[in-house]
Amino acid sequence: MKKFTFFAIIALIAVSFNLRAQNTDNKWAVGINWQFEDFNAVHLSVGEQFQYAKWQGYKFPSALSVGRNLNPSFNLFAQFGVSQLELDRMKEIGQPLSDDKFWTGDLNIAYKFANGYMMKETSWFDPYIFLGLGASSIKDLGATNGTTYMKQVTGVGFNFWLTEKVGLNFQGAYDYVITPKLAVANTENKRDDYMHYTLGLKFRFGGKDTDKDGVKDKVDLCPETPGKVELAGCPDKDNDGIADKDDACPDVAGKPEFKGCPDTDGDGIIDSEDACPTVAGLKELKGCPDKDGDGVADKDDKCPDVAGKKELGGCPDKDGDGIADKDDACPDVKGLAQFKGCPDTDGDGIADKDDKCPDVAGIAANFGCPEVKKFEYYKVVYFATNKTVAITKYTKDLDEVVGIMKDHADVSVNVEGYADSQGNDAYNMKLSEKRADYVINYLVKNGVAKDRLVKKALGEANPVGDNKTADGRAQNRRVEIKTVK
Question: Number of helices and strands (H, E) in the chain?
Answer without folding.
Answer: 6, 12
